[in-house]
Write a structure and sequence with these properties.
Length: 130
């Protein structure tokens, strides 16, 4: 009986590991036409995809983000926004044990674009995986 239990435990452990999948969240922080800080979130999880939301709203989404059995890569692109205006969002990223900050770049940085292309996240589609 103990052998069956041990084999069953190993099997289910392997099944959980096999189903773990790395995913990413790409975040754009920018100034809106009204000169207010706005955030776009592009994710493989449909409910996380948002456009032109506030830092507070984005922080709430990031706080609740979970992985699919593994960590979640996060790339952040900033366009003409001062650190003090988005620092609270970076804090939420660092506080969430599921999230790994993969890249932080300015509008001209290449790290963000590399992550977007690597994980086939399309900006024009609202962030749906392509």
């Amino acid at each position: 009986m103990k052998q069956i239990l041990a084999i069953t435990t190993v099997f289910f452990s392997m099944l959980l590991v096999a189903q773990a999948e790395y995913r990413v969240i790409a975040i754009e922080i920018f100034k809106s036409e009204k000169k207010e800080v706005a955030v776009n979130i592009h994710s493989e999880v449909e409910s996380e995809n948002k456009r032109s939301i506030t830092i507070i709203q984005a922080s709430e989404i990031i706080e609740k983000a979970r992985g699919w059995g593994s960590s979640v890569g996060v790339a952040v692109k900033i366009d003409q926004v001062s650190l003090s205006e988005y620092l609270s969002l970076l804090s939420k990223i660092s506080e969430n044990v599921w999230l790994d900050l993969e890249g932080l770049s300015s509008n001209t940085g290449t790290g963000y674009l590399h992550i977007m292309k690597h994980y086939k996240i399309e900006q024009g589609s609202g962030g749906n995986a392509g």
